[in-house]
Structure to design on (888 residues):
């Protein structure tokens, strides 16, 4: 048994210590918002926050997050920064197919939690998840909006 | 593009209320429309005119929200929002109040030109626009009739405002939700009047997408997210080469003993492990040591052990075979005999993966009552129903096909032999007697994903003394996707092989466009913008090559070749205007970088496009700074979605022309994940500027048309910048 803190709740799971956090979230805890895209930390669809920093859960062994705070997309609307990101995603009509967007929202939230006023270079360095629908410009606009970098309409 | 798909059977099956009930939401009492099942079955499906029976599409709840059964799958292209706008416009109901679901299989939903149901070919809106408007108007008329009865006033005295029927003289009003139960019994009027487009309230406006919030909060559910009680998970290991079979599993006992493993299975061309958790299944199947046996007898497109894409490209370039002419005009012999100069060159395209972010999955559940439920990503539920019936041996009316949101598709989710996991999930569920969800890992997906075809095109061009093109010949050595999927040639040429070489609108006095058929050792597929995804690259870059030869400016040359074509002249001028005026370069940008621009046009899927790209080269890599694209789809439904789709198509077009190549060596895929098969990353996304031109021509598509002009615009820009022609995707040799 491994004890985890997911979105502020203590959860106990019967998983081997090297099981990726992604599959514990999805199959043991039934939390389907975090997505599998590649399994090798290339695409970022599986991004979650661990102690406020973005991590790719597909290559993060569950034992590595025992005793640490894991936050997933399911908690974003209740997170002060996450809620702003979600609203910006809606305002800028970011998603198309939507499959990568859980991870994109987590990456943006991680950036803005650590740096409320990121520069364009900071945004470019942080927002590296793949999107096959090519929503990159909308993602950038939404993040810049939350960061106060967008021109006022 | 023609309809490259079989016409589905119109079995009288599954005109079902299931979708309505499932979609109504917990506890919601649906008093609105519902499918009149008895009547539907008594009528017989033969009499169903697709897109006409209001109850098959619409349920209006007491709270006035509207549930709409979409004939089209939502995979990011925005079609559910577009459907709500079109139906809502004529129904007089705010599209923002719509909930949209993918309709179950049924004859009502064969609304693509009234004869089939696919989500593809950029057909959805343009093929069903009139039908869906009429459906909305019919529903509105039924509500008005119901109100006339309830209020005891003549229907002619009633009007509507969004969601309500109004009797102005008395001030009475009833909501659609209140009227829906009675409206169900009203006869559908034969000829309803449609709105004058000048009165449109929602069509043509920037309506917010209905699915954006759910997709921004992790609530959107895709096939891979489906789960049912008692479900087991499965993973597979495919044979490295298609056609190989399982000879022997060397360590089956050890695999069976691994944690969580339920059972190990030999499937055609694959081994599968069924387990309590997907991670257990995956780890066990990857630990499985298999001796693969070579294909025996006739199998579907077996992969040769010595196949390499590099050698295949040379083979295609040099192959001499029968030239089958798709399009010809004028006197080619005279054109070349009288030419002041000629130019010839061979161009290449590559295999590419769909690389949609959602890996394919399938969930199969046999039920105690003898029925079967299946969930898997698909762009054509009725066609898959036929296939599942064949594979399961069950009658179609015992099968429920569920079609969740698509995590990207780009042509990935049609019927591709050996290219989808549902047959494996079905077989495993049958064997273990429990529901099974099978996910293909990214590695298994890239191994079995059928590919966009590869081609070598041999061009010849003739120019007159003024340097103007007077004749063009394009011989494409390739296999089209339709003939590739069928694994058999049809009586006529596969339009999808040459579209984009054919159908060009330039007024050249003589042309000859032909295919030399060479079967591809790989499996093939439709890929966003299909033949146009490579053929406009070929044509438009060779056109620039002719312009260079004749000393012509590429924009001036195109304008000249479009003389008399007001629509395309206007369109290319719109693209140039959007870009701030034509300048080919090379020129020095304010940041000191040396840049150039390229221009190209395409006529894909009923829409006309013109694109301009500005590029530089830095650190040995092409940098695309801006793409300006003007699109003329005739008329439009949602400009915001069009802009998003053009952005999306630009990204995929750039990914194709700059980066992607599905390579084989020794019969094996060189790369099976995004580390070895990179796709466009955020740092390489250019600014995208879109201008929508509504010429009033018949409505064209939107999902795909933004792609084809982008690769040649970029290639033409890079060729101008470096002073030599680049003739192969992905672009190389520019540094």
């Amino acid at each position: 048994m491994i004890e985890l803190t997911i979105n502020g709740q203590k959860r106990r799971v019967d998983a081997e210590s090297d099981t990726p956090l992604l599959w514990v979230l999805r199959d043991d805890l039934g939390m389907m918002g975090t997505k599998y895209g590649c399994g090798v930390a290339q695409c970022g669809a599986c991004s979650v926050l661990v102690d406020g920093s973005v991590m790719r859960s597909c290559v993060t062994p569950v034992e590595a997050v025992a005793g640490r705070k894991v936050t997933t997309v399911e908690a974003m609307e209740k997170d002060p920064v996450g809620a702003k990101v979600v609203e910006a995603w809606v305002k800028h009509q970011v998603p198309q197919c939507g499959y990568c967007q859980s991870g994109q929202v987590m990456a943006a939230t991680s950036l803005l939690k650590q740096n409320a006023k990121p520069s364009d270079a900071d945004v470019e360095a942080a927002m590296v998840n793949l999107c096959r629908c090519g929503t990159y410009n909308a993602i950038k606009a939404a993040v810049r909006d939350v960061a106060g970098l967008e021109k006022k309409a | 593009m023609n309809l490259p798909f079989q016409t589905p059977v119109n079995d009288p099956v599954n005109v079902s209320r299931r979708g309505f009930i499932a979609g109504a939401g917990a506890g919601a009492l649906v008093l609105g429309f519902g499918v009149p099942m008895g009547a539907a079955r008594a009528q017989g499906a033969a009499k169903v005119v697709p897109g006409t029976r209001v109850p098959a599409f619409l349920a209006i709840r007491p709270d006035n929200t509207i549930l709409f059964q979409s004939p089209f799958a939502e995979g990011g292209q925005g079609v559910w929002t577009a459907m709500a706008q079109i139906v809502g416009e004529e129904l007089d109901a705010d599209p923002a109040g719509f909930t949209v679901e993918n309709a179950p299989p049924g004859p009502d939903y064969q609304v693509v030109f009234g004869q089939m149901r696919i989500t593809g070919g950029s057909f959805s809106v343009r093929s069903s626009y009139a039908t869906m408007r009429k459906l909305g108007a019919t529903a509105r008329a039924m509500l008005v009739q119901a109100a006339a009865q309830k209020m005891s006033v003549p229907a002619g005295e009633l009007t509507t405002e969004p969601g309500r029927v109004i009797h102005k003289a008395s001030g009475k009003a009833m909501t659609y939700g209140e009227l829906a139960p009675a409206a169900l019994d009203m006869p559908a009027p034969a000829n309803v009047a449609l709105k004058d487009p000048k009165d449109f309230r929602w069509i043509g406006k920037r309506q917010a997408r209905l699915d954006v919030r759910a997709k921004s909060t992790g609530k959107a559910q895709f096939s891979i997210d489906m789960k049912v009680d008692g479900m087991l998970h499965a993973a597979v290991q495919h044979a490295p080469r298609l056609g190989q079979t399982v000879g022997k599993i060397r360590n089956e006992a050890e695999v069976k003993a691994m944690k969580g493993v339920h059972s190990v299975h030999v499937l055609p061309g694959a081994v599968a492990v069924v387990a309590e958790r997907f991670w257990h299944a995956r780890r066990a199947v990857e630990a499985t040591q298999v001796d693969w046996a070579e294909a025996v007898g006739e199998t579907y497109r077996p992969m040769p052990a010595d196949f390499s894409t590099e050698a295949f490209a040379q083979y295609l370039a040099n192959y001499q075979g029968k030239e089958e002419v798709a399009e010809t005009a004028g006197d080619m012999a005279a054109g070349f005999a009288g030419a002041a100069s000629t130019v010839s060159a061979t161009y290449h395209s590559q295999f590419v993966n769909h690389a949609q972010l959602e890996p394919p999955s399938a969930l199969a559940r046999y039920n105690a009552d003898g029925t079967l439920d299946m969930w898997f990503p698909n762009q054509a539920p009725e066609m898959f129903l036929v296939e599942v019936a064949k594979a399961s041996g069950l009658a179609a009316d015992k099968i429920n096909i569920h079609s969740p949101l698509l995590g990207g598709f780009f042509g990935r989710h049609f019927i591709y032999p050996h290219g989808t996991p549902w047959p494996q999930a079905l077989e495993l569920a049958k064997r273990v007697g429990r529901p099974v969800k099978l996910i293909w890992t990214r590695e298994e997906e890239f191994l079995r994903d059928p590919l966009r075809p590869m081609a070598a095109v041999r061009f010849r061009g003739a120019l007159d003394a003024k340097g103007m093109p007077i004749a063009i010949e394009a011989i494409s050595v390739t296999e089209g996707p339709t003939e590739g999927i069928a694994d058999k040639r049809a009586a006529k040429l596969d339009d999808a092989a040459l579209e984009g070489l054919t159908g060009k609108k330039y007024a050249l006095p003589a042309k000859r466009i032909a295919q030399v058929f060479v079967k591809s050792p790989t499996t093939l597929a439709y890929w966003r913008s299909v033949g146009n995804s490579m053929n406009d690259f070929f044509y438009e870059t060779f056109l620039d090559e002719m312009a260079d030869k004749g000393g012509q400016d590429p924009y001036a040359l195109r304008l000249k070749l479009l003389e008399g074509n007001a629509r395309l002249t206007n369109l290319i001028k719109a693209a140039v205007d959007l870009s701030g005026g034509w300048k080919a370069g090379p020129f020095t940008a304010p940041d000191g970088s040396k840049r150039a621009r390229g221009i190209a046009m395409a006529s894909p899927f009923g829409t006309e496009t013109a694109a301009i790209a500005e590029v530089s080269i830095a650190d040995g890599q092409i940098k695309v700074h801006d793409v300006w694209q003007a699109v003329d789809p005739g008329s439009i439904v949602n400009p915001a979605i069009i802009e998003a789709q053009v952005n999306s198509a630009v990204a995929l077009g750039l990914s194709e022309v700059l980066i992607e190549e599905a390579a084989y060596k020794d019969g094996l895929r060189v790369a099976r994940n995004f580390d070895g098969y990179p796709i466009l990353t955020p740092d390489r996304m250019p600014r995208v500027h879109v201008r929508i031109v509504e010429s009033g021509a018949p409505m064209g598509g939107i999902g795909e048309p933004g792609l084809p002009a982008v690769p040649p615009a970029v290639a033409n820009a890079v060729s101008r910048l470096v002073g030599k022609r680049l003739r192969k995707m992905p672009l190389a040799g520019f540094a």
Observations:
- The two ends of chain A are 52 Å apart (CA to CA).
